[in-house]
Amino acid sequence: GRVIVTIDGVAASGKSSVASGVARALGVPYVSSGLLYRAATLLALEAGVPLDEAPALLTHLHAHPLRLEALSAGNRVWCGKRELTDDLHSSRVDGGVSRVAALPEVRAWVDAQLRALPAPFVAEGRDMGTHVFPQADAKFYLTASPRVRAERRARERPEDVPAIEAALIERDHRDRAQSAPAPDARLIDTGTLPLDGVIGAVLAALPA
Ligand code: C5P
Q1: Listing from the earlier edge strand, what are the strands of the sheet with 186-189?
Q2: d(CA 169, CA 142)
Q3: What is the CATH number of domain 4-205?
Q4: Can you tell me the distance from the alpha carbon of 35 to that of 200, in angstroms, rounded to the nearest whole number?
Q5: Which atom of ligand 1 is nearest to the CA of 102?
Q6: Which of 70, 75, 97, 167 is 20 to 30 Å from 85 at the Cα level?
């Protein structure tokens, strides 16, 4: 059927790896909502648009439309013919994205793009189960301690674990308004399970 599964959680909790694994097992695409917030942030930084100036930012985004290519193996973001994907996980984008994501106009812009995608899919982010797809067929919320998450992220960033941990805690704090588990979400602590175990737990909990 036209199933929607949502996987929300804190920063670096493993959402995209889990969403990708679940999507592959189901043979459907996964959708990384954070990439659209990251791409909006990158375009703003490049254009010198202040990160909290919603009207200027929206004007810029409408003039430079972004396209999220949602595949089960990975998501890509395009701005016209330019692929932004590899530039979206820098510490500079990490540091600014929560400010951009705090703007209601930007959230509405992201939400509209996500809601236009054809189901079935696995959607991953902060507010997929609470706000964007409250009608989802199954909802999950991933957690893990800041230290575990920082140790994972340290494999993908040049900074050391304490610096990454501090930045993750700061980002969680800024994101708290839009990052809460849906009342009907199943909580999974990814700190104590290997990736396969988390994917298996999600698949086992899906409605038949
Ligand atoms: O998931 P990821 O860490 O890549 O998301 C980057 C940022 O995008 C988050 O820190 C948050 O500020 C924002 N975000 C959001 N709502 C979502 C997904 C991401 O506010 N659904």
Answers
A1: 30-32, 121-125, 4-9, 138-143, 186-189
A2: 15
A3: 3.40.50.300
A4: 25
A5: 20
A6: 167
pLDDT tens, position by position, 80-128: 999 999 999 999 999 999 999 999 999 999 999 999 999 999 999 999 9
- Separation CA 31–CA 117 (nearest Å): 9
DSSP 75: E
Question: What interhelical angle do 161-175 and 146-153 show, nearest 10?
Answer: 120
ipTM of this complex prediction, to 2 decimal places:
0.97
Q: How confident is the model at residue 29 (pLDDT cuts 50, 70, 90)?
A: very high
Q: What is the DSSP string of 92-147?
A: HHHHHHHHHHT-HHHHHHHHHHHHTSPSSEEEEESSIIIII-TT-SEEEEEE--HH
* Closest residue to atom 10 of ligand 1, CA basis: 98
Which amino acid residue places its CA nearest to atom 2 of ligand 1?
A: 34
Identify the residue whose tokens are 């957690």. Answer: 143
Side-chain half-sphere CA neighbours of 84 within 13 A: 26
Please state whether 80 falls in left (phi above 0), alpha (psi between -120 and 50) or beta.
left
Query: Which protein residue has the closest C-alpha to ligand 1 atom 16?
Result: 126
